Amino acid sequence: MNYTGLIIAIITFIIIGVFHPIVIKSEYYFGTKCWWVFAIAGVLFITASLIVSNVILSPALGVLGCTCLWSIFELFEQKKRVEKGWFPKKE
Questions:
Q1: Which residues of the chain fall below pLDDT 70?
Q2: Which residue among 29, 34, 57, 67 is least crowded, i.e. fewest CB within 10 A of its CB?
Q3: Residues near 24 by Cβ (< 8 Å), separated by ≥ 6?
Q4: What's the whole-model pTM score?
């Protein structure tokens, strides 16, 4: 049996689940001005995924990189959610 796909799916699920609170906390403490950290991390992780030859680590790094890049969009969406009162605003 080949468990590679299942392992990658579980890793993807965990990465996305972990990034949800990271985006919320990042927007709360730093606002949207930390978007560039997600951009740099995303590019670095995607680049690493192209270099690594491991069958599980390479896709995991790619997912991590894409999640970092997607977090930029979510960071600005989180700002809108805070403005609507759905999440607390840092005073």
A1: 91
A2: 29
A3: 78, 87
A4: 0.89
